[in-house]
Design brief:
By secondary structure, the chain is α/β, with parallel strands linked by helices. It has one domain: Rossmann fold (3-Layer(aba) Sandwich). Helix content is 45%, strand content 17%. It has seven helices and seven strands; from the N terminus they run βαβαβαβαβαβααβ.
């Protein structure tokens, strides 16, 4: 019996990464579940996935450190399963002002949101000899001028350009696409009241649900004639 195909999801312990990991598990993939500090949440996600009858291996790594990215792929090589999917979901959204933003804050955003997906894609491509799919998780902010989150916006804009470059460079065996989300899950960047106001401004006047996020990933995994595409899932936020 041949081993199940393998998928990596970075930042998989909670929030969007957890949704992507569970989606892949339901589609029959064994998982490498990357996390950094959220060990308890990662263990809960692992238990949810294993309850679906597939394997889930936890790997802790600081993806801003290139040497720690190697530990993710050590787990891939030790799994004995063919790597078929990489989802670059781990990211940080730091507030700041371009006039006062520190070099350290800029580098943290760039190293996790842009450099890490590049390095992960390089390593994944070397192991996807039988073909594969890379999905980068972007943001509608990549095409906005959110002056309160400059490093985040620039990093996500770069990620979308990287997506297109990788799609061309890695074709035809490996397809590379991105999902650009809008208001998906509330964070601590805005107050609950402000969040509700932002949702009310959306043309569709509601948040995306987990099933819709899962469907977007499933589509990009299965759509064999789609590469270099950024699938926007934002309820019309880009129209504002």
């Amino acid at each position: 019996m041949s081993p199940s195909p393998l998928a990596i999801v970075t930042g998989s312990a909670q929030r969007l990464g957890r949704i992507f990991a569970l989606t892949l598990a339901r589609n029959g993939y064994d998982l490498i579940l990357h996390y950094h500090r959220s060990a308890q949440q990662a263990q809960r996600t692992q238990a949810e996935i294993e309850a679906l009858g597939v394997r889930a291996t936890l790997v802790s790594a600081d993806l801003t450190d290139p040497t720690q990215i190697e530990t993710v792929f050590q787990a891939v090589d030790e799994s004995g399963s063919p790597l078929r999917v990489l989802v670059n979901s781990a990211a940080v959204m730091l507030a700041g002002d371009l006039r006062t933003l520190s070099l350290e804050e800029w580098d943290v955003a760039m190293n996790l949101n842009l450099r890490a997906p590049f390095l992960l894609a390089q390593q994944a491509a070397r192991r996807m000899n039988g073909g594969g799919v890379i999905v980068n998780i972007s943001d509608v902010g990549a095409r906005k001028t959110w002056t309160g989150f400059p490093a985040y916006v620039v990093s996500k804009a770069g990620l979308e350009t990287l997506t297109r470059l990788l799609a061309r460079a890695l074709a035809p065996k490996i397809r590379v696409n991105a999902i650009a989300l809008g208001l998906a899950l509330p964070g601590n960047q805005v107050t609950p009241e402000r969040w509700e106001q932002m949702v009310e401004r959306l043309p569709l006047r509601r948040l995306v649900d987990e099933g819709e996020i899962a469907s977007a990933l499933e589509y990009l995994i299965k759509a064999e004639y789609v590469t270099g595409h950024v699938l926007t899932l934002d309820g019309g936020y880009a129209l504002l």
